Amino acid sequence: MKLPALSENKPLRLGSLMLLYAAQGAPEGLLYIAIPAWFAAQGVGADAIAGYIAIILLPWSFKLFNGILMDRYAWAPMGRKRPWLILAQLILIGSLVWFAGLGEPTEALLWFAAAGFAVNFAGAFQDVAIDGMAIDILGEEERATANGLMWGGKTLGTAGFGFLTGRLISDEGHALAAIVTAAFVAVVMLLPLLLRERAGEKLMPWSDGQASTHTQSVQVQRWWPLVTGVSKAMMRPASLALAAGILVAFLAYGLKTAFSPTLAVQELQWDRGLFTDRDATADLLGGLFGIFVSGWLADKVGPLRALGGALIGMAVLNAAATAMWQTEGFYFAYLLLYSVLFVLMSVCTYAIAMGQSRGSVAATQFSIFMALLNFGTSIGAGQLGWLRDVGGYEAAFAACAALSAIALGFYALSVRLSRALETSTVLSDQEMRL
Question: Is the pLDDT of residue 321 over 80?
Fold first, then answer.
């Protein structure tokens, strides 16, 4: 039986994008939650863990180049992004197997960082391929549902594998945790292997089929039009302000990602398993919120207002944490509320970035915004050491609060500068809807 193409079947299209994002989130649960907590329990210092996180996050900053490469080169008979997606998932599986073969963190921390870098290098290619595919095959009216499902799927993948791999590390060691993560990615890889982007395309290189007329019409054939088009799009004042807002907002997230495991395990004396369980629970709550609430809320009040509310909430929460982080029960409540606010901020950021990414270079421009998102996360994680030296964890929380407030200013400026937003209502502009 021949399966329908993704462009022809809405439930298959939305379900596949959600599962592909879950496969993107699964390695993050291992690398960002379970492994740092394991490091902390093994006596690895906060600065070393922050350095590990900063290194493994760096490949996400290369998404600009990934997007340009994918927009320029495509093997159209198999789809515009599907061959890139399959290749990225193969490399991701191999990198996780390499990660599984490493020794103890006290003896091989640099190799853990290198293997984590490789995992995220493949993950970043996978992410750009999925986003590009989504831009190509989603109808404008589907973006509300799709953004919530995709981000919710990723967050649930992170939460589920943060919990699962944390338990596996406790019982069997990190090797089995990495292998199980690789196996999940391999199962999800069946989707791009079995489903075409558009009807009539080749399923495999040796299969019958040909490039669709849509793919041929939008494919960029030369470098210069691509580079000049992207440059003009990014030099728009609204795009520059949005880029600054994304960078600053995710500096705060990177800093929080770096300090969370050592604060919980070494300062609050949480058991490593307790931290991974609670962090995964927070991610689970965020994922469910992303799937069932974020789209409805953004449609109700508008994604721009929802984004502003999320950033204000994060600023207030971090400001309160400067005085209360050692209070009994506060930090678990912090993790839960932060996860919900972060998911809302992220989904709205994705939608706004999609709205400002238009024309033949839309996928590349969107990948630039997402590269800045991840570059900010990586740079933010690297700032923990000097902030702790200046003022301890209180200084880290205060920096997160200030960065969220500054980001809100840049987002507001971007909206003011965007003629499209000034001349249309948020709820009727389908490119901005969630």
Answer: yes
| Closest of 21, 14, 16, 70 to residue 195, by C-alpha | 16
**CA distance readout (Å), 53 to 99, 113, 148:** 15, 8, 26
Query: 79 near 397, Cβ under 8 Å?
Result: no
Q: What is the pLDDT of residues 303-320, one digit of tens each?
A: 788 899 999 999 999 999
Structure tokens at 8: 């022809």
Residue 159 falls inside a structural domain: yes
Distance CA 365, CA 353 (A): 9
Q: Which domain holds residue 137?
A: 7-417
Residues 6+ apart with CB under 8 A from 417: 236, 237, 238, 241
Q: Tally the domains of the chain.
A: 1
Cα–Cα distances in angstroms (integers) from residue 296 to residues 343, 351, 365, in the given order? 13, 14, 27
Task: Give residue 64's pLDDT band: very low, low, confident or very high (50, 70, 90).
Answer: confident
pTM of the model: 0.76
434 falls within a domain: no
201: left (phi over 0), alpha (psi -120 to 50) or beta: beta
Q: What is the CATH number of the domain that holds 405?
A: 1.20.1250.20
430 falls within a domain: no
Mean pLDDT of the chain: 85
Residue 171 and residue 74: Cα distance in Å, rounded? 44
| Half-sphere exposure (Cβ direction) of 258: Cα atoms closer than 13 Å | 36
Residue 45 gets which letter from DSSP?
Answer: -
Distance in angstroms (rounded) separating the CA atoms of residues 433 and 398: 32
432 domain residue, yes or no = no
CA-to-CA distance for 345 and 37, rounded, in angstroms? 25
Read off the pLDDT of each residue in 175-183 and give the average, rounded to a whole number: 95
Query: CA-CA distance, 307 to 343, in Å (whole number)?
Result: 10
